[in-house]
Each structure stands twice: as structure tokens, then as C-alpha cells.
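Title: [Solved] glutathione transferase 3D structure

Original question kept below for reference.
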Amino acid sequence: CVKEVLPPALDSTSEQPPLFDGTTRAYICYTCPFAQRVWIARNYKGLQDKIKLVPLNLENRPAWYKEKVYPENKVPSLEHNNKVIGESLDLLKYLDSNFEGPSLLPNDSAKQQFAEELLSYLDTVMRTVYTSFKGDPVKETGGVFDHLETALHKFDDGPFFLGQFSLVDIAYIPFIERFHVFLDDVWKFDITAGRPKLAAWIEELNKIDAYTQTKCDPEALVKQYRKRFV
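Solution (posted by the thread starter after getting help):
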């Protein structure tokens, strides 16, 4: 597979790309897990030529982004059909309904219902794990990772949450990727130990180019998280 040549991140000195000139743009940050979701979905649906990445430097973000593009001033956002919309989970569904490429949700209603349950549960996972960085992650996060291990047993027609790869995997992996590396580095806590389904899930995801092309450098990630949380 050909690795995409990524544009440099724009900062406060960079000019604004033209707005609403007919180009579809995904405003992201290379290190932001929320933005990574949209980036993975774009890649997986084969939309590299349809959706242009506009990476921003969030430490030194351009003033025009908030003033002219997206008043929320967060990433990701998507400029499409003369409007700009945000919120990463909404954008995954938007990309799926508005663009061609492999579907990100199965037609099976039981799987769709389980998808919604897992997407709601994500808040619990994130809250629990991020809070645990101030305490004892080994004790405090076991329950949420066990919950995911159990969830991965529900459909046995593939290694992913809904059996086949879906937007649920895309929603989870940017965070699990970070937790996996960081907990192991700082607390020597391997979240996949004793959780074979979770281990297999991470392994299978790492065979998908759409995802691996968006991954952060683990060392940079640990450094960033140490600075923020330890």
C-alpha cells in the first residue's frame, strides 16, 4: 500500500485554505484521538482523493479556524457542501451516509443496536481510564477492559466488536491505542494480559492500513501523556 504524503500542520502563521471552494476538507490534528477517528474512516472508505486533510497545530492554532471555519475551535471538523460540521462520532456516521466506499455499519439490526450500546459505553471507558491516571489504573480500569473483552465475544463472525470491522472499532481504537502504550509504559500494566479477545482485536486492527497510517509514534505519545497526566 502506498503511504499517503501528509501535509504539514498549519499554525498561527499559516494562511487559511479557501473556504467553500468545492473542496471537501477534514480539519484534524495528527495527534488528536477524536480527529484520528475521522481520518481512519476517510482512509477505510478510500476517500483520500475526495477529502483533503487539513492538519492543525493545536498548541499554536490559527485564529482563522475559530473565526471563519468552525466556531467551536475543536477538531475534527468537516467542510462539505458549503457547511462545516463537527463531533467525531457524528462525523463517522456522516461520512458513512454521504460518501461511497465500504459501509461502516452492518445492516443487521442486532448489530446496530449493540453498536449504539458500545458507543454510549465509550464515555465510561474514557472517564474511568483518564481519571485512573491520578490514582491506581491497575485497580481502577480492570472493569472497563473486562467489559470490552466480554463485548468482543458477542459476535463470533470476526475479531471486531460487531464481527466485521465497523465504526465502533474506529471510535474505540484511537483511545485504546493510547491507553495500551501509556499504561504499559508508566504502570507496567498490559491491558491485553488475560484478555485474549482484546489482544486479537488490537492485532487485527494493526493489519488494516486505513488505521496504521494514522497511528501516533508511541514514544511521542507517552511523552505527551506523561506531561499531561503524571
